[in-house]
Amino acid sequence: MQPPEQIQGHCDLDYLQAVQASSILACIFSILGIFVFVAQLFTLEKGKRFTISGVFQFLACLCIMIAASIYTDRFHLDEQDGWYGHCFILAWISFALTLISSITYFVLRKKTA
């Protein structure tokens, strides 16, 4: 049986990898959303243009939310001062901006139909 210190370190590593994987997926979905947006401008008719890019932005939003939530829950259990750092704040700001971006894509789809 492993000592509790090694088990705790292993669990932290698993959570850190989950945060990193979710962050990378968010970046990939955002980049795909941009490329799909540009491709849809020239290929699809007006009523269907922004649906797929809005879905990619929404998936990126969910990945950012998952990463920030895991990071908050697992890595700041003993936080007494209430300060998580600049990257934590930027993660939640990027969550809000990608959510607004995905909603904007869906609203644009309705207005151009």
Automatic annotation (TrEMBL):
Main location: membrane
Cellular localization per UniProt: Membrane
GO cellular-component term (any): plasma membrane
InterPro entries: PMP-22/EMP/MP20-like, PMP22/EMP/MP20/Claudin, PMP22_EMP_MP20
Domain of life from the UniProt record: Eukaryota
Membrane topology of this protein: Multi-pass membrane protein
Any Pfam family matching the protein: PMP22_Claudin
Transmembrane segments: 23-43, 50-71, 83-108
Sorted UniProt keywords: Membrane, Transmembrane, Transmembrane helix
Gene3D superfamilies for the chain: 1.20.140.150
Similarity comment text for this entry: Belongs to the PMP-22/EMP/MP20 family.
Protein's recorded name: Epithelial membrane protein 1
Organism for this UniProt entry: Pleuronectes platessa
